[in-house]
Amino acid sequence: MNTSIDPREQVVGRGNGSLAPRRHLRNQEAAALIGISPTTLKIWRVKGKGPTFIKLGDSKQATVIYVEEDVLAWLSRHRFRSTSAYSARATGRHQLED
């Protein structure tokens, strides 16, 4: 029986005392989840856009991973009902929501 643990998963405590796996995604997996190309996600990282990431090392070539729940939270923060709602947020003007 193989008892090895996938290095992209770690068990973390949730505030309610339960344990749940935290899944780590590589660049290609995170890009697929968002629906963009891996190259676009890489460019966003350089520009400080997109979801938060973890860099495993100090070199330029160090592996970058994303915590799946961070990617999902980022996607959730970028949901809009209309283009005017997006424009209001982008320019700092806020509209009343129903």
Task: Break the fold down into its secondary structure elements and pairings.
Elements: E1 9-13, E2 19-26, H1 27-34, H2 38-47, E3 54-56, E4 63-67, H3 68-77, H4 83-91
Antiparallel strand pairs: 1-2, 2-4, 3-4
Helix pairs in contact: 1-2
Structure commentary:
The protein has a single domain, classed as Orthogonal Bundle (Multidrug-efflux Transporter Regulator, Chain: A, Domain 2). 38% of the residues lie in helices and 21% in strands. It is built from four helices and four strands. Strand 3 and strand 4 form a beta hairpin.
Major sheet attributes: 4 strands, antiparallel
Q: What's the domain count?
A: 1
- Give the strand content: 15-25%
Structural class: alpha+beta
Strand order of the largest sheet: 1-2-4-3
Low-confidence region ranges: 1-5, 94-98
How far apart are the first and last residues' alpha carbons, in Å?
A: 55 Å
Q: Looking at the chains present, what oligomeric state does this protein adopt?
A: single chain
Order of helices and strands: EEHHEEHH
What is the share of helical residues? 25-40%
Q: Which topology does CATH recognise?
A: Multidrug-efflux Transporter Regulator, Chain: A, Domain 2
Please report the first level of CATH classification, the CATH class: Mainly Alpha
Number of strands: 4
Examine the secondary-structure arrangement and name the CATH architecture. Orthogonal Bundle
Mean pLDDT: 79
Number of helices: 4
Net shape: globular
| Rg from Cα | 17 Å
